[in-house]
Design goal:
84% of the residues lie in helices and 0% in strands. It is mainly α. It has one domain.
C-alpha cells in the first residue's frame, strides 16, 4: 500500500509546495484549499499505509486470541482512515479547484465504501467478499490517483 501511495504523496506535496510559492497568482481561497488538501493528503497517506500494514498482518486462525486482538487493531485502523476521509470531506471547494474537487468527493466515497467492505470480509473469511473488498480498494486508489492528477492540473492552471 505504501508503495502505491508514495509517488502520489510526493507529487501532491510538490504541487502544494509550488502552489504556496505561487500564491500571488492565486486567490486566498485557492491557496487555503491547496494547503488543506496537502495536509489532508499527508494524514490520509499515513492512515491508509498503517491500515494496509494492519490488514496484511491478519492472523490465519480465526477466533484465536491473536485474531481477536488483531480485530481491535483493524477496527482502530478503519476508524483512523475514516477520520482522515471526514477531514478531506470538510474541505470547501474553491473556485480554482472546482473540477478536481468533484474527483476528491468521488475518491472519498469510494474509500469509505472499500473500508466498510474489508472488516466484514476478513471476519467472515470469505474469499469472494475479500475479492470484492480488494477490487473496491483498487478502484478507490485509482480515484485517488485521478484526483491527484486533476488537482495538479488545477494547480498548474492557477499558477500561470
Amino acid at each position: 500500500m505504501r508503495k502505491i501511495l508514495g509517488p502520489i504523496l510526493l507529487a501532491l506535496s510538490m504541487i502544494v509546495l509550488s502552489s504556496s510559492i505561487a500564491q500571488a497568482a492565486i486567490s486566498e481561497a485557492d491557496a487555503k484549499y491547496a494547503q488543506l488538501a496537502g495536509k489532508a493528503t499527508q494524514e490520509f497517506s499515513t492512515a491508509i499505509g498503517n491500515w494496509g500494514d494492519t490488514y496484511q498482518g491478519a492472523p490465519d486462525k480465526v477466533n484465536s486470541p491473536e485474531y481477536r486482538n488483531w480485530m481491535k487493531k483493524a477496527q482502530a485502523a478503519d476508524k483512523a482512515v475514516k477520520v482522515t476521509l471526514t477531514n478531506f470531506s470538510k474541505i470547501k471547494a474553491s473556485a480554482g479547484y472546482k473540477s478536481s474537487d468533484a474527483s476528491l468527493r468521488k475518491f472519498i466515497k469510494a474509500y469509505n465504501n472499500a473500508i466498510d467492505l474489508y472488516a466484514p470480509a476478513i471476519k467472515k473469511n470469505d474469499r469472494k467478499l475479500v475479492k470484492k473488498a480488494n477490487d473496491a480498494l483498487m478502484a478507490a486508489t485509482t480515484l485517488f490517483t485521478n484526483w491527484g492528477n486533476e488537482f495538479a492540473k488545477d494547480t498548474s492552471r492557477l499558477a500561470q
